[in-house]
Amino acid sequence: MLTWFGIVRLGLVQTALGAIVVLTTSTLNRVMVVELALPAMLPGALVALHYAVQILRPRLGYGSDQGGRRTPWILGGMATLALGGILAAMAVAWMSTHQVAGVCLAVVAFLLIGAGVGASGTSLLVLLAKRVDPGRRGAAATIVWVMMIAGFAVTAGVAGQLLDPFSPARLVAVTTAVSVAALLLAFVAVRGVEGNGAPAAKADSTAPKIPFSEALAAVWSEPQARWFTIFVFVSMLAYSLQDLILEPFAGAVFGYTPGESTKLAGVQHGGVLLGMIMVALGGSIPAVARRVSLQAWTIGGCIASALALFALSSGAFAGPDWPLRPCVFVLGMANGTFAVAAIGSMMGLAGAGGPSREGIRMGLWGGAQAIAFGLGGFAGTAASDLARHVLGSPVAAYAVVFAGEGFLFLVAVALAMRVGHVRNAHDQPVQFRGRKPEFAEIRQGGAT
Prior knowledge:
Blueprint: H1 4-35, H2 41-52, H3 57-67, H4 71-95, H5 99-131, H6 137-162, H7 168-190, H8 199-203, H9 212-221, H10 223-241, H11 246-254, H12 258-284, H13 286-291, H14 294-318, H15 324-350, H16 358-391, H17 394-421
Helix pairs in contact: 1-2, 1-4, 1-5, 1-6, 1-7, 2-5, 2-16, 3-5, 3-16, 4-5, 4-7, 5-15, 5-16, 6-12, 6-15, 10-15, 10-16, 10-17, 11-12, 12-15, 14-15, 14-17, 15-16, 16-17
């Protein structure tokens, strides 16, 4: 099992991943819209593309299952991500002189970014799930996600200094340096974690391999895995719906300036961090851990998120006197609590249905999360525009959208409870055509 130091080492992979992602989804976004005066829809579509390609996560996880080792997939994914980041910067620089060619290269780059994030992120979570003691999973999830946020923050600050005075060549140079440094950091972080071999994989090397389609069908037939996938999609959709409308809401309804609304986002992120730390500390204190499971943290976080969103919906009508900042802070804290607890639950459930399918399960849940995030930002803004058109009032429009998000979180609560109620006795064996009987049985574990 991994020590705390080992968990932090693997968290450096998330730091490296976050360093590249923040440049490609934030900095390049701004350059395309501001410096190159391109339609905002272009970077929006590219970011959506990087989420969409992560539907391949189950297939990538299946590949790591077949090899039995996760390190090659983590490093291969990081190399793909680094290449995608460099090509994305080159594409944006190219757009300034050859727009069509630059856009075509950007499409290829963001496909690589999505594939790299999917391969490295999925295998990293599987490795953590296999090597972290069950009592430390909540804390481990907090550590690696806080380290990813640290990657965002440090890269944004350092790269911001290096990019001035701006030029396309400087953009490519800075992005290349960050991508190479991130790749080297990932190599150092995972070196020796899995050792030199994978005994379980070697023992099964002569066994017949189950095709991906049959392995995926087997995992989907597991009640726990299926219900948890639906829970992840619904909860993360609710989580991401408010991403792009919270600051406009503060400006339109409460009269916040751009600077004030940006500070409000900081208040929310502070709440997210506190929520994550609460789960980590709760899991590390035996007396608390015995009474409050990761499932309880997840359900409690979803309920608190729903209540905070209902409060925001009411605040839309109450106007400037409504305590918006405390409400947003509570929303962030609730979001952080449920999100990191859900990730900890992923680690526990990854191996619940038997060995050699951890990658597919984690890939299935990671793919559901990525698709939800990709849809969430667009759906939130579209729902806001539609409600404003129908209701004729921005106040009513925001109120309806926030209430709808709160309802989605309540649906997620019901789904999380359903996951917890699944029992081994309800599982049915899955038959594989032309396979030996020992590959036909899918064993289920209890809820985390």
